[in-house]
Amino acid sequence: MKTYKSEYGVKIFAYVISILTAIICFIPFWLIVIGSFTAESEVIRNGFAFWPKDFSMESYRMVFKVPEKIFRSYGITILITAVGTGLSLFLTTMAAFVLMRKDFKYRNQIAMFFYFPSIFSGGLLPGYLLIVNGLQLKDTLWALILPGLLGAWNIFMMRNFMTDIPDSIMESAKLDGANDFVIFTRLYLPLSKAGLATIGLFIALGYWNNWANAKLYINSSKLYPLQYLLYQMFSNIQVLKDAAMQSGVAMVDLPAETFRMAMAVVTTGPILLLYPFVQRYFVKGITVGAVKG
């Protein structure tokens, strides 16, 4: 009886801590959403509040002032995220499948080939010269996709997922005459859903939030991804506001802080809609990846 009461008390304590943690994590996001619907003058005067005292849609009007640009950038971001995530997952899982094979003679040497550059990279300049001069991909969508295709951490994490699959499955498939590619695509990939969802979410977030590659490799405004377009819009607003302040002209109605909040809402919205569909795989994947090593 005492054991039951003790376990019940631990569960209540865990639920309370979880609820408090969720509330603490939710408050900043709520302030961002409310701030995006607040007038700039109110934010400057009184800061952010839990409810807009002076409701305003000006920041969203600025974001969607030229809607075709926003929707085109949304399309480009969705395209590079979908293509990049798909290709990256396929290459990552193929590399992980090879590295987890105990019958692969040089797997430790190949693993070091992936691991070492992730610690001591060549830097920004060699990557820029490779994309611009070597591959001649400047001002193309491939310049936004290729740099993020492979990551050593993703490969090793996926390898840890695959090592959890019994070796007897591969041995049985070989006895039935299946080749390595069939074993990989029809057995190991379906059995690695948790790992695919976890790593896929990390890769997709990386592509979705990346704006630095567009700044380096893209000149045409028609190829701007969403993050870089909003970054440029915010920079232009900030420049106008700074110029007005230096001239002695107050421009409190020009949204800068609230525009930043609206940017966060616009860019994180699709990710928040996607997360519930991969949450159960994500939680399981994090647990497995943390236990195995």
How would you summarize what this structure contains?
This protein is mainly alpha-helical and 293 residues long.
Structure description:
With about 290 residues, the protein is mostly helical. The chain has one domain: MetI-like fold. The chain is about 75% helix and about 0% strand. It contains 14 helices and no strands. It has helices at about 1-35, 40-45, 60-65, 65-100, 105-120, 125-135, 140-145, 150-160, 165-175, 180-190, 195-210, 210-215, 225-245, 255-290. The longest helix has about 35 residues, at about 1-35. It is a multi-pass membrane protein. It is found in: Cell membrane. It comes from Eisenbergiella massiliensis.
Give a topology summary.
Layout: H1 2-36, H2 40-46, H3 58-63, H4 67-99, H5 107-119, H6 124-134, H7 142-145, H8 152-162, H9 167-175, H10 180-188, H11 193-209, H12 212-217, H13 226-246, H14 257-291
Helix pairs in contact: 1-14, 4-8, 4-11, 4-13, 5-8, 8-11, 11-14, 13-14
- The overall pLDDT, averaged over residues, is 80
Low-confidence residue ranges: 286-293
Q: Helix- and strand-based class?
A: mainly alpha
The CATH architecture is Orthogonal Bundle
Please, how many domains?
A: 1
CATH superfamily membership, which one?
Answer: MetI-like
Number of strands: 0
